[in-house]
Specification:
The chain has 147 residues and is an alpha+beta fold. The protein contains 4 helices and 7 strands, in the order E-H-E-E-E-E-H-H-H-E-E.
Length: 147
């Protein structure tokens, strides 16, 4: 069990705290909220393989994920990526293949739901994805002011 959440829009900072707190029971090992270019991401972690706190953030990249990628070590070796666990591998793999995320996603064997964002030329880009069977659910809401 993990939980991920994100919010962009008016009152996002206040609302994300409420969203993440309401799911804290799903991840007792770590709870964290970050601001990524006014996009707020929250994560509650139940650490199973190697503790890597999420959301994962670098200057222009962000990932929040609920994943169990069974072949993460094989993918890391194949892609020459040094990762401590499946979520870190996912972050580094998506950074590497940001222009063609399906190339990265098609390598994954497991169940996952994630949001990956990056900033490029002052434009925030990103995508949401889940495993083909929907084992890790992914819901979203969008209107003219809020995503």
């Amino acid at each position: 069990m993990f939980s991920i959440c994100g919010l962009f829009g008016p009152n996002a900072k206040k609302q994300i705290k409420h969203m993440n707190a309401g799911q804290k029971h799903r991840g007792p090992d770590s709870s964290k909220i970050v601001n990524f270019h006014n996009l707020f991401l929250g994560h509650n972690l139940l650490s199973i393989v190697g503790f890597v706190s999420q959301p994962l953030i670098e200057k222009n990249f962000a990932l929040v994920a609920n994943c169990e990628i069974y072949n993460w070590e094989a993918v890391a070796k194949e892609e020459n990526i040094n990762a401590k666990n499946d979520s870190e591998l996912l972050f580094l793999l998506l950074k590497k293949h940001k222009k063609n995320p399906l190339k990265a996603i098609n390598k994954l064997n497991g169940d996952f739901a994630f949001a990956f964002f990056y900033k490029e030329k002052n434009i925030l880009k990103g995508f949401l994805a889940r495993d083909i069977f929907g084992i890790k659910p992914l819901w979203y809401y969008f209107d003219k002011n809020t995503f």
